[in-house]
Protein 1
Amino acid sequence: MVRIVYLARLRDAFGKSAEQVDLPGDVGTVAALLTWLRTRGGVWAHELASGRAVRVAVNHDVAQATTPIGHDDEVALFPPVTGG
Amino acid sequence: MPVRIQEHDFDVSSELAALRAGDKRVGAVATFVGVVRDLNDASQVSTLTLEHYPGMTEKALAQIVEDAKQRWDIYDALVIHRVGPLSPSDQIVLVAVTSAHRGESFAACQFIMDYLKTRAPFWKKEQTPEGERWVEARASDEDAAARW
């Protein structure tokens, strides 16, 4: 199981702040996870479309497209930050 | 604790006193205070709500402070960032840095703010007469962080 956390605008768009998912065996990286989530269609395909600015963190560290995702990881999806 | 996330306000004077208490090497304290403005992109802002990603926020800010300590000869640094609903003129963020001479603390303070703006997981939502809207990230903030 992987925990996916949605923050700020993405939480509003998806209507949920987090979910636990069983990822298919071939979904082992950030890029693969985004591709998999896009197949849900609708707002998922829209918000996560390539070209949209989506940032990803794995276990509280900023992640890249190639960052691996494994069992019990916490993956967070969020828009570019606007603090300060 | 060099990094704090809190809903309540902070008192700059007492925070600065605590930061340098007992450290007689300190000859300079540089401070930045970020404040909520009442106008953004031509809209009146009545409330600015800040959210963050608990766990990652503390880790990211602690790393930024650590990076500053590696780059400059500074003694200590403090970051306080508020979350929750804020009103125009409210304080949002405090960065304070101590050093022997002003150059190090000025530079480290600016570095910490520039990195915080682009790397710490905070998001702002504005309430305006036209409704709610998420604040968009600015390219100028990326440029400011890239120069370090």
Protein 2
Amino acid sequence: MTDNPSLLAAEHIGKSFIGMKALDDVSFDVRAGEIHALLGENGAGKSTLIKVLTGVYRPDAGVIKLDGQAVNVRDTQHAQKLGIGTVYQEVNLLPNMSVADNLFIGRQPMRFGFTDRRLMEKRSREILAQYDLDLDVTSDLSRYSVAVQQLVAIARAVDMSGRILILDEPTASLDSHETEILFAILRQLKARGLGIVFITHFLDQVYEICDRVTVLRNGKLAGSATTEVLPKIELVSLMLGRTLAVATHNVRRARPAPKVRQFSFKGLGRSRSIAPFDLDIGQGEVIGMAGLLGSGRTETARLLFGIDAADKGQASIEGKPVHIRTPREAVALGFGLCPEDRKSDGIIGDLSVRENISLALQAQRGWFNRLSRREQIALADKFVRALDIRTTDIEKPVKLLSGGNQQKVILARWLATSPRFLILDEPTRGIDVGAHAEIIALINQLCDDGMALLVISSEIDEIVAYSTRVVVLRDRVHRGELSGDDITTSNIMQMIAADPEGATA
Amino acid sequence: MNRLSKAALTKAAPQLLSLALILFLNYLAFPGFFEIRLQDGRLFGSLIDVLNRGAPVIILAIGMTTVIASRGVDLSVGAVMAVSGALAATMTVAGYPVPVVILAALGTGLLCGLWNGILVAYFDLQPIVATLILMVAGRGIAQLITEGSIVTFNEPGLIFFGTGSFAGIPMPILIAAFLLFVAITVVRRTALGLLIESIGINRSASSYAGLNSKLLLLVIYSFCGFCAALAGIIIAADIRGADANNAGLWLELDAILAVVIGGTSLFGGRFSILMSALGAIIIQAMNTGILLSGFPPEYNLILKALVIIVILLAQSFSSLGGWAFLKAEFRSKGAKR
């Protein structure tokens, strides 16, 4: 089947945004009757490539060929006319309109200038019957599950375009049963000769359903192969840009395991978010959390810190059961969290460095126990010096600082509250090399001072360097734990890549 | 401190300049504008009149500032004024003593605000929609209280709050000044000011930092309702009656305009209650000037609309980085030449 000629091919595509190369000489093609996985971490260029293929962006370089003929995709409507349909992760449908409306919106069958509802509903039933879906096409789409909505979106895209289907993380919000239904339909579409581009973060799914896989990294083509001949471990190293042979530049610091583990989480979990897990952590220890994007790392942090409420399990501190339902309650227990998305969940952009650093402590002290301006200045000065935050003035709005310095400001905000348990979600993402090293040094120092830390990172070298234990996640399940001398880059990568039922230490 | 107040003055320059300009135009239209005289132990004059008539909007603007700073808006304040005025008038006619009447009217305002706050904080309704509900329903409630008629009263104790004076200064001015002082002190001497700005700029990040943003929103909207009730009492006391249909009509827009003129962004964040009060005075100076100059009052509405357009355009322009863009454009053009 993969010997078919290319249906849609992008050749040597280049695309820049204000001097930043989002795509650099990327080639990609999908054949009829094939499911082609497109992989890469965030910012690798997947969505830019999709947008080039569907006419949202125009490439600066390269050509797009349909059936071997160069085409100029003008816009998304033109792409649909050429047969290229796209279904986005956030379903682009209208939940408060009927199923039939959603299938036909913008192209309703007309009679005497009015929508012919009877014909529209009849054709809707015919379309859905192809997918063995028996829905009431006149009822609101919102009555059906996300999975069904996704299928309706696919049905619409296939009906409108019908040659190439691009799916952007279709399984991100589906459970395993719903994913199976989706896959059955994808196999059926594949048998009908459609070319399908499948974007996902779940490696197991790649091997389950895809014929070929292409990996992007930093806007460049990292590699492309048929799934049959590509071992999973190699796929992981393609995505992370590490080969097993590379020596780690960070020196690992051995640390004794703490005698007591004060913070204990038993069977904590939340459906559709993260499978129940056990986690114990003691003061003076760093737990590294490794896994690919979407593996459930951030979801774990959100549960621990009370941003999402756990629907199962129990947390306890020093043996006493505690309830953590809001970040406020977590902070009162001495927790802190530096979130993954600094801009939307971390900094208060328009407030000054001084105010941002004072914020968590002030929230803890209450509304009427105000930190005086003098105390705030003293606090800010202390942490600006201790963490070497580069700013001309502590009165500068924090949004004007660089990413690394913003990260340090958020760290300072928590350190000001003298936390006992600090969670860092991707603390070194998107910051420059110098700040990177400083934050790692800080993690080590805080741990030596007796804090309990949980650090989530995509940088495996980094995790190896500072962790006392490493928890590895895959597909929203805590798969296993490494400790002591077992913590090596290759062990972690093997666990990330391991088969679902395979050896997970 | 000196440096700080200088910076504050520079920041307030556009508002102070426009106030000066409007006052000067008023003077041209009506040469006696700046005259103030003492008569029967009370100050009289156009300037006093501006402050006296502006007092209800100043009071509304104080509450509205905190709401807008939290990235919200309260459309219901005009209707809440009508409710509290209707309640005060009806209770007075029914013979309740003045302190009870006032506490009941203010309490009703607090409850109205609490209702708005619950919708915004706990049901996550968009503030404009949440408060629109009470904006519509409030007038209905006020009409139910007055049973559709204009309720008039003649209780000197209540009338005093509208037309009385103390030490020569009309009561509405004193009440507004006192509330202004208390509000600014509370907001800046406690952590509330910082926390309100924080949730207004980034509610998600504020929650991550452990702020109790829901409770804070409740307090903010309740306070705004309280301010509206206070303004409603003053207006009812001034006209010695409650008109459920017209009391406070469109004043929510004046209050929002005052806050915006004062420089607090509708996108929330940094705020200044004092500057909002200045905004309210600017609006009233405009109103009074047009009345004095003998133009028909219809011009007032059009002029106000023009001011709103200019201010909002300037705000969106600068929030889009318009000035920096123009500068860069200008430079690159210069370089090409």
